[in-house]
Amino acid sequence: MGSERRNPSRKARPRENFAVEEKSEPLTSRSPRTIDPRRLMEVDEEHVGEKKKRRKSQSSRKSQYDVRSVEDITKEDLDNIAYRSKDKIWDKENGSSCHQCRQKTLDTKTVCRSGFCVGAKGQFCGPCLKNRYGEDVCDVLLDPTWSCPICRDMCNCSLCRKKDGRCATGILVGLARYNGHDNVHKYLESIQRDLK
Fold first, then answer.
1. What single string gives the DSSP state of each residue in 39-66?
2. Which residues does the UniProt record annotate as the domain Zinc-finger (predicted)?
């Protein structure tokens, strides 16, 4: 009686054949993953209205955070920009968070100067801004009128797409480049044009 399982359907137990190694077939040629473009552009109508309501209430108030002006950007800040993911230094205590990838790193992020962004909303790291929107952090930091992709209603991060009633894109930069685009935003725009 002691060795018999009392609750065989318990979720905490490992599934059958857990940790059994299986031989995987080697990949002969690496091709980009296939996606359904219609699924990327599909809109879930029940979530669309919620975003518009929130937008109105947020746009009526100004940001309560100090926004760094162009004059406050130093050469050290510009030298601290990460252009590749491997240039980033992760630090969950002292780092600042990127809106797109949600990683807390020590590199210099963008500063949204629209006046409506709060917290990490207008902060994008170098690799995300370049790969997802085709913009350079150095140019953006020195532009006194730059507003982030969220304020321009073109953010394609998973959270913003979900608020718009769309599915998350995942990592699309490789597929975008394969199809002749230098960033994900242009690729998504081309898919939208093709579907119309």
1. HHH---HHHHHHHHHHHHHHHTS---SP
2. 91-188
